[in-house]
Every structure is written in structure tokens, then in C-alpha cells.
Amino acid sequence: MSSFTLYNYVLSGNCYKVRLMAALLGVEYDTVAVDFYPGFEHRSEPMLALNPSGTLPILTADDMVLTETQAMLGWLAAKFDPTGRWYPADDPVVSGEVLQWLGVASRLTGSVGAARLHAMLDWPVDGEAVRKDALKELQGFELLLTDRVFAGQTWLVGDHPTIADIACFPYVALSPDAGLEHDGFPAIRNWLYAVRSLPGFVTMPGIHQLHELREGAHG
Amino acid sequence: MSREHALNDWYAVADVPGLTRGPRKARLLGCDLRVSGQVDDPVVTDEAGHRYPAQVRYDHIWTTLGDDPRALFEIPEGEQPGRRRVPCGVVRVKCSPLRAVENFLDIAHFPFVHTDILGAEPHTEVMAYKAEIREEEDEVWATNISFYQPQAAKSAGGGITTKYAYRVHAPTTAVLYKTCPPRPEEMDVIAIFVQPRSETECDVWPWMALYDDSSEFAELVQFQQEIFLQDRSILENQRPTRLPLDPKMEIPTRADLTSIAYRRWLKRRGAYYGAMTEDA
């Protein structure tokens, strides 16, 4: 049985976050394709009735409607991960760290996400300004990740992946869509590789399978 | 010289749904244009106010900058009644317009780039097919192509062996005819109309004319967009950026027959905009 419905746009990094989290948790769900582009359906009357802020994704389950992507990750983990590892809410310090990263994820959406829409779909924003913001966010992210590497860690919080990693992953991974390559970001490259290696990982356009790992698994 | 040849082709510079929402700025062959007016009377002007010819075909607004334009091609199948015509919007790609077309013509990359949709390992072999330049029509054709596809179209229930034919009638547009899963006797029509902004950047307008009565419009658009955006990151990383037309600059394989014919055809007609050659 399907456990929730995702109003989805296939090229959206935020929609992908939810698809990825659900896939990693092994949760089945329904999707409704929303013609974000070129149809701007997310701003149509029926969609605005569901989500007055006119954004995607939208997640509905029973009588609940969620419109904030980071909240969807928290809900998915709280509901479908009995181990509590994906969203470790019991420890205030760990929980605080996870929530801190969710804020970083929102900034990545606002900068890299906007630069990507501009580069790809000619979105009406100041292209130079958002690209500059995006580069600054990526540089900051690289520094934070480098600290984690020095601490001997792979993931953003603790010693296993959490919703913090999934929240930050898509727009960091998709920055080359905006012409912001990963070549100068070794810590980011390693971390992206780690996320892509997770069992159950799914792709979206711009984020590829690790073919080399698959072959390794066969050999 | 390369731009001179390109001036006399027609290019999609806007789509009908977009024009109903308002004017569009479009760069074409390095020239900044404005597309405005109504769908039954589109107006294409440059910054100096010069007006260029415009026509509406295949749900797009077409224009040409040249004084002696070649005829806009015909896609008769695309206008058959009963087909759903799906303009998929525009995607900007930092690549040669010719590379965008060449990638559209390539089958061998399906299992690796469009994994579990248009191809899947281990079904990676491209069986022998025919590629030719048809002299009478002055077009490139590739026929007798068949390929195993896990999800050939939105309307496909599961994996099928799909038949393909490709047709190139202008350097920056290409049409694909492909098995229509709900109506095996018919072919779906999928095209890309490439609007060259410069020799190394283009706007790409995918367009489809399908027999599919069950999928939602948004699902059809997203199916195509997902595939095209999987190609985008590959296209932006191809080197050299401009398409090499001389055979010794890249080593082709048997699977590249269509590409070889396309490059040869470009070279002999002097379509060098977005290309590199030894003599130009």
C-alpha cells in the first residue's frame, strides 16, 4: 500500500530529495506529475489551493499536507525509520546539528538551485548574482566537510548518514548544471561518492549511477 | 563564413504556449531578438527594430535571419489527427548546436546515460543498421534500428524491443520515429529543434507528436525532460566543444554510422556553424 503522495517535478532537486529519502528507506509512494516547466502548473488554482506558497514538492498523507522539503525528510525518517538513525532526535546536541544542516540545505536551494534554474531554464533571476552566491555556499560547504574529514568522519553528523546528508546532497551534486564544477572541491567529491554508494540510491538527471561500483559488485 | 550558411535556415525561437504568456528574448546566431505578438501573428524583431519573417509550425514560432531562406521542413506525421502534440519547453545547454543534434542521433549511450529507461546493461550492443545521405531529399536518414528498451515511452508497460528511424533535414533539427507502444503499427514522432545562441551555446526545444490517450500531459513532458536533462550534463562536458567534421579528428565505431553520415552531410553543405574543420 502506498504511504504518501508526492506532487512531483522530475527535474526539481527538492522533489528528488524526497524521492531519494523514500528510496533509501524502502518506502512505496504515489506521484502526481506537476508541469512545473513549461506549464507553471504549480501556480495554477488547484495547486495553490493545496499549497498557497506555490512551491514544489508537496507531500500529502492522510489529512496532512507538507510543503517544506526539509520537513518531509524529517517526517519520512520519523515515520519509517524505527532505528531512529536517519533523524536522531533523542540527543539534543546531535539533533541540533542535524537541524543546523537543514538550514544549510535551504541556503543551497536558494543559491545553487536558483543558479541552476537560470542556467538551464533561463529563469528570470540575476544570473551573475545567484552564481556568486552559489559559489560562496559551495566553498563554505567544502570547508565544513573538510573539518569532518579531519575529524575522521564521512557524513555531516555522527558516523552514519542522516537526513542532513540527504537534505544537502541534491543541490551540491547538481551544481555542475549551473556551470559550477566539483573539480576544486575534493571533500565534496568524496562525500558525493559516499551518498551515491548508499544501498537503494536512486538517480535524477544530472546525478548519475556509480557504474564502476556496480561492476565491482559483479566482479 | 560558417554563420553565412546558417543564416538561411529556419529556427524555433519560442513556443506557442510561451508566446501566449508574453514576449520572449531569444538570441539566435549571436543576434538578440524579441519574439512578441499573437500566436496567429508572431513578431520577431532585433534590437534595431528590424522585423524578421516568422511562421508558426509544430507548436513553435520559427524565424530566419537570412535573405534567401531554405524551405522549412515538413513533418507530415506530426500533423496527423489523433496525435497528442507535446511541446516540452526549452532547455539551455552550453554546447555546440551540432553536438546537441548528434547526441540525439546516438543510440549507443542509452544504457549508460538513460539507464533503465531507454536502455539497460547488459543489453548494450547496437545491432547493424543503415545510415545514408538521401540525395533527392538532401537529408540524413538512419533506418532499421532496433534496441531493447526497459521503458521506451510513458505508454510502454515494460521492456520492449523498439524500432527507430532518424531523419535530419536541417543542421539543427532532427526527428526520431519510434515504435508507438499502444499502436505498434504507428510510429511516435519525437523531434528536437535547436536554436543556436552561439557556436557553443544553444536553446533546445524538444517536441513530440504521440499516440497516447492515457498519460497526463505533465507525465509526457516530464518523461521527455528527464531524458533530455540526462544528456545535458554529458553534452556540456564534450570536448572539443565544437563538433569535429574531419574523420581523422575522432575515431568513430560501427555504432556511430549516423553520426558519420551527419558530419559528412554537414561538411559537404558547408554547415560549419558550431563545427571545426581543417579547412575552415
Helix and strand topology:
The complex is a heterodimer of chains A (219) and B (280).
Chain A: E1 5-8, H1 13-25, E2 30-33, H2 45-50, E3 58-61, E4 64-66, H3 69-80, H4 92-121, H5 127-150, H6 163-173, H7 186-196, H8 211-218
Parallel strand pairs in A: 1-2
Antiparallel strand pairs in A: 1-3, 3-4
Chain B: H1 2-7, E1 11-15, H2 16-21, E2 24-28, E3 31-38, E4 41-46, E5 51-52, E6 54-57, E7 60-63, E8 84-87, E9 91-93, H3 97-104, H4 110-113, E10 130-134, E11 139-149, E12 160-170, E13 173-179, E14 187-198, E15 201-210, H5 217-235, E16 243-244, H6 257-269, E17 275-276
Parallel strand pairs in B: 16-17
Antiparallel strand pairs in B: 1-7, 2-3, 3-4, 4-5, 6-7, 8-15, 9-15, 10-11, 11-12, 12-13, 13-14, 14-15
What would you note in describing this structure?
The complex is a heterodimer of chains A (219) and B (280). Chain A is globular. In chain A, a hairpin with a 2-residue loop joins β3 and β4 (64-66). Chain A contains eight helices and four strands; from the N terminus they run βαβαββαααααα. Chain A is α+β, with helices and mostly antiparallel strands and 219 residues long. Chain B has a single domain, classed as Naphthalene 1,2-dioxygenase Alpha Subunit, Chain A, domain 1. Chain B is built from six helices and 17 strands. Chains A and B meet through α4 of A and α5 of B.
